[in-house]
Specification:
The protein has 209 residues and is mostly helical. It is built from nine helices and four strands, in the order αααβαβαββαααα. Helix 5 packs antiparallel against helix 7. The longest helix is centred in the last third of the chain and has 26 residues. It is flat, with a radius of gyration of 24 Å.
């Protein structure tokens, strides 16, 4: 506290001893600022119990149901993937493939439409059926778990959605782009822009003449 009076006690407790008991490591964080990898390291230590492992035995056909069932009740376990009919030992590769495939299934869900918009500019769909399914809750758990275990993220959302999740207020609007709107809204906005331009041009052109 005497070395870094500009930091609050809560921030100091977060980094040391919360993040690391290594003084030189803590000093580097205070001097250079906490990086994303530091936050992941802290969360991994606090939320993942390395002494508890759960092996998920799956095939490509059973992956979705098995993954959903797992994340309804687990988050702190280290998950290992066993592909039925394969002798491959999961050293990370099968687990990364599991997360990637599950995210694709969430994106292109065959049973209920969870997102709309262009690929990599997806927006969550809000409906009573989706809320009751709790699929977004399960997806959130999976994203946290995959980041902690493999640093794999869910890469398909529009940028403003990430901002809304992070800050939760109107600042997310600053990150909207034309790609984030539905085709109907985007066409209406372009039409309105063209009409405004035509009116502006005609008024100024007549005045100039």
């Amino acid at each position: 506290k005497q070395l870094f009076p500009q930091f609050s006690p809560a921030a100091i407790e977060f980094v040391y001893p919360g993040l690391t008991h290594n003084f030189s490591e803590a000093l580097e964080i205070f001097v250079n600022g906490a990086q994303a990898i530091d936050i992941i390291k802290l969360m991994r230590r606090n939320f993942v119990d390395n002494s508890c492992e759960y092996t998920l035995c799956i095939t490509s056909e059973t992956m979705w149901n098995a993954g959903i069932a797992f994340y309804k009740k687990n988050l702190d376990h280290v998950i290992r993937i066993a592909l039925q009919g394969s002798a491959v030992v999961d050293a990370g590769g099968p687990r990364r493939q599991f997360f990637t495939s599950m995210y694709e299934d969430f994106r292109d869900n065959k049973h209920v439409q969870l997102f709309d918009g262009q690929c990599n500019y997806l927006r969550p769909v809000c409906s009573p059926a989706i809320c009751l399914s709790e699929l977004f809750t399960l997806l959130g758990r999976m994203i946290v778990h995959s980041i902690l275990l493999e640093e794999i993220r869910f890469p398909y959302l529009a940028r403003f959605v990430y901002w809304y999740i992070a800050v939760g207020d109107s600042r997310a609007v600053d990150h909207l782009t034309m790609n984030d709107f539905s085709d109907n809204v985007r066409d209406a906005m372009l039409k309105a822009s063209c009409e405004f331009y035509d009116q502006y041009y005609n008024v100024h052109f007549i005045h100039f003449r």
